[in-house]
Design brief:
about 65% helix; about 350 residues; two-stranded antiparallel ribbon; mainly alpha; 2 strands; 15 helices; globular
Length: about 350
């Protein structure tokens, strides 16, 4: 909004020329989202507590310590992330850019699904929210529609292409299969973050790291000079998503202030589904879907642990892990919550560095 209103006045007011630079507007988005989080965090948490009473329902089959350590903590803290990200993006991004709106639709759409799921849990006083099939259908509908739109506004041959990391010229044309594939990336990323969100601060820091990596990636692929130098596919217009990713980094950092152990609020499905959907959508637009699997490796590991656990139990009657997702397995082994969380953060940083190396290793 500021770009659209102020940059056209740059000839009369030289200071407004700053708004042409993505780096300046991304920095503004980071700070705006961070300040909004700090200002609204306390009042929002107090309001959620007054409305929720006993807070988020705790899983009966979860780790034994959770009913004691997590009871009374409010959920739906993802509202803080959504408000901060949306406001900062609308203020600092070029609102004529259709990619920005595509990502915002996924973020807010998945956020609404998560909000309804959290609301059901609170009203039923149960850890079971919306029926899984209803959630999945709603997510696929939103992701599928946005995937189609992305394919329409992206120039050929990238519109339906899949870029492969480590290969500078390899682009696989998925044709009509691009839409279900892109939808799968968004829905998969959304639910992977949701599965990871089980301990204080566990999901938000890896999400912030991924958002930071995607900010760099979108800046590069949207710039013809940088993308040419690094021999990655240039996606005109995708650079504007750097502002969105910056807003997500700022909102995540602000939310971490309140979600750090011991958490004052949980993000709930409101936050985890929307954040996961957002990073999935950005990876699709920037043509780095496969790289997302690397930089978001913590989310992938958590998801695989659930799949392996369920498959093993159904096929053999035995469990591979003491409990799934993976972080609960280490809780059952006696690891302290801060130890698990910080070690997962370290793994997320390492995987992010490996993922970013694909920009150069071609």
């Amino acid at each position: 909004m500021l770009y659209n209103f102020l940059f056209p006045l740059a000839d009369d007011f030289g200071l407004f020329n700053l708004f042409r630079y993505l780096t300046f507007r991304t920095g503004g988005a980071v700070l705006t989202a961070l300040i909004i989080s700090f200002l609204l965090g306390g009042p929002l948490i107090r309001w959620l507590k007054s409305r929720q009473g006993e807070g988020q329902p705790i899983r009966e089959d979860g780790p034994e310590s959770h009913p004691l350590t997590k009871k009374g903590t409010p959920t739906m803290g993802g509202l803080l992330i959504l408000i901060a990200v949306t406001t900062a993006t609308l203020l600092w991004a070029d609102l004529s850019n259709r990619y920005v709106w595509a990502v915002l639709i996924v973020t807010l759409g998945f956020g609404i699904i998560g909000f309804l799921d959290d609301y059901q849990k609170l009203t039923k006083r149960s850890s079971d929210g919306l029926p899984g099939k209803i959630k999945l259908v709603a997510e696929i509908a939103i992701a599928g529609a946005v995937a189609w739109w992305i394919s329409e506004i992206t120039l050929d041959p990238l519109a339906t292409g899949l870029a492969v990391p480590f290969f500078k010229n390899l682009l696989i044309d998925l044709g009509w299969f691009f839409i279900p594939f892109a939808a799968l990336v968004m829905v998969g990323a959304s639910n992977a973050v949701n599965l990871t969100d089980g301990l204080d601060g566990l999901a938000i820091v890896p999400a912030m790291i991924v958002a930071g990596c995607l900010a760099l990636i979108t800046y590069i692929v949207g710039n013809q000079v940088f993308s040419g130098y690094l021999q990655v596919h240039n996606v005109p217009g995708a650079g504007e998503l750097t502002v969105f990713c910056g807003a997500l980094v700022g909102a995540s950092l602000g939310f971490l202030w309140f979600n750090a152990p011991p958490a004052m609020v949980f993000m709930g499905d409101t936050g985890s589904l929307s954040v996961g959907g957002a990073i999935g959508a950005v990876s699709v637009i920037s043509k780095h879907e496969l790289v997302l699997a690397i930089i978001g490796g913590v989310f992938v590991l958590e998801t695989i642990s659930v799949i392996v656990q369920v498959a093993s139990f159904k096929l053999t009657g035995r469990r591979v892990f003491r409990m799934a997702p993976l972080h609960h397995h280490f809780e059952k082994k006696g690891w302290k919550e801060p130890t698990i969380v910080i070690r997962f953060w370290i793994i997320a940083m390492i995987l992010a560095l490996i993922g970013l190396s694909t920009l150069k290793l071609r």
